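One example copied in:
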Amino acid sequence: MIKALFRYWNTTEGRHLPSLALVVAGLFMVLTTENQSKRAGHTSLSEQLKVVSSQDQLDPTKFTAAELQYLEKRFGVHGPQPQLAQLLTQGVDQFEFIRSQTIHQLDLLKPVILSKAKLYKVNPMLVTAILFDEIQHSTPGEDHPLLAHSGLVKTYGLAQLGISELIHQKRLPKNPTAKQIAQARDLLLDPESNIELLAGKIARLKNELNLPAENMLQASNSYRHAKAIATLAYLHNGKLDYPARVLRYMRDPELHGIIYSQRSQTKLPII
């Protein structure tokens, strides 16, 4: 079409239409722009697909420098465990009898875990995973009242919670008396109370992170859910290697069996 217009412009009649050159130039620019737009559209779509694909492959337990700076400034978390401590943690995980004892203890606590998780609208598997890690890596005798009230330890009970958590949950004043601190330690040593405080802590942190209170969060649902859970785990323990362990425990078939299996209540017939 453009060639035909040029041929017409070269004729005697066409020369009397000087504006025809502008028309042709304009048409050429329109066609060129359309082609570039189409190519740009294809490139943009391709880039978007690449971004989506890369997001799907992200590790939710990896935090950017900006994220770590924000969390440290706001919540006071402090990075990974020392290498030796990580090796000791991994070593404990290899002892099958410790795992079996922890599994048995969690099995007995299942009704409490489910009821408190429901009360605070948090994922029971997240509660279970945190309890599993803390119980399995606990120091023998640290739950004894004498040690708890000695002042030598700062965290107490199954979930290893501190006195500060009761203050955060407004169960203690900001400056508690010695008597109130002693009562708080006893409360933290009680398994049912400790689990409730853990569920309450997760709910509190969800609120502080502006996460939907009604959303239980499931790591298998999306990257965002997994990232949120990893952040909650990090804020609970304060160690950068902790979220990966918690997410791994949440996928553990045996721990899943504790929370979601249905025991048969069939009674034996009386003979």
